[in-house]
Protein: Ubiquinone biosynthesis O-methyltransferase
Amino acid sequence: MNPILNADPAELAKFSELAHRWWDMDSEFRPLHQINPLRLGWIQSMCVLQGLQTLDIGCGGGILADSMARQGAEVLGVDLSSKALKVAQLHALEAQTPRVTYREVSAEALAQERPASFDVVTCMEMLEHVPDPASVVQACATLVKPGGWVFFSTLNRNGSAFLQAILGAEYLLNLLPRGTHEYAKMIRPSELAAYCRRAGLELHATQGLGYNPLTRRYALSTNTQVNYLFATQKPLDFQ
Structure:
């Protein structure tokens, strides 16, 4: 596989069909809007975004990119869904979001073009949708400056994750469209940690993210059985 084409056409088509609903708080993207303050706060607990060159890989309609720009970061959001990017650009214009731009380019292609260019790289809810997640992790490591931070979030692969993220969220609670996730593409924390080590990233913190169906609220937790986040850093002496 050509690493610069590390994308699943079916996945791109799936999200492109929903692109116009990215900023509808009651749409299929409602969970992303609900968890965004949590993941943004967690990122800011590791590094203050004000003034930092920040890259959001797999930005979709720009939910995280927009919020990071509003915290003072200089943000570039990249994705391979042209429809989602158009929605992100339109929202930035309508909301007058400062310091955010968007571009249709893969992580791997951008890594060849702009190595060691960003203080912070985020890749949220994206790794479980590409054929080769390790290639994306390597691209993130290439794109971040020595001493910079790379944040990931994805889904674990185990029985609990299948029951909650697929059966529960997609079929019983209808929180997500059916077919949003494929069990085989989910990534165990040990696997993601191995990808990070091979890419030269040091794992500093792991955080779980859970959903309470009774309160209909998401919260950060120590339980990484389903959704989890990684905070990694590129060593200052990286060669």
Q: What stands out?
A: Residues 3-233 form a domain with the Rossmann fold fold (CATH 3.40.50.150). The chain has one domain: 3-233. The longest helix spans residues 30-46. Strands lie at 53-57, 74-79, 100-104, 118-124, 144-155, 202-212, 217-221, 227-233.
